[in-house]
Specification:
Length: about 130
């Protein structure tokens, strides 16, 4: 899901670039003032960089979501095992930690949404203002 979201944003950014600048949009793959002999290498490097944006945008979001869910699953399993073994008083500690992890996960979700929107804005800005 996160990769699909980042892929759709990068497709929209690319389409916007082609609609706005037509074939001149491809100039983002060659930095200005670069020697002509280095052009094939620079185009390859810039293309890999452009594709890596999609992967990093989706991967960052997915990793943070998965890490929070995994930590919550481990602690809830620990609390359940303590409850099923009759350690009711001791199981309150993992349950209390789960409450704080839920709050932490909500804060991480807000920060990740902010970072995702900020990076999307930067990518759109790069598309609108060619170098």
């Amino acid at each position: 899901m996160t990769f699909g979201l980042s892929l759709s944003i990068m497709i929209a950014v690319t389409l916007l670039g082609f609609i706005t600048f037509r074939l001149n949009f491809l100039s983002i793959f060659t930095p200005g003032g670069a020697p002509l002999m280095l052009a094939p290498l620079l185009v390859l490097i810039e293309t890999v960089s452009y594709i890596t944006r999609v992967i990093s945008l989706g991967l960052r979001l997915a990793a943070n979501i998965s890490a929070g869910h995994l930590l919550f699953a481990i602690l809830s399993g620990f609390a359940f095992n303590m409850l099923s073994n009759g350690l009711v008083i001791l199981s309150l500690f993992p349950m209390l930690i789960m409450v704080f992890i839920t709050l932490l996960e909500m804060m991480v979700a807000v920060i990740q949404a902010y970072v995702f929107c900020l990076l999307t804005t930067i990518y759109l800005g790069d598309t609108i203002a060619l170098h």
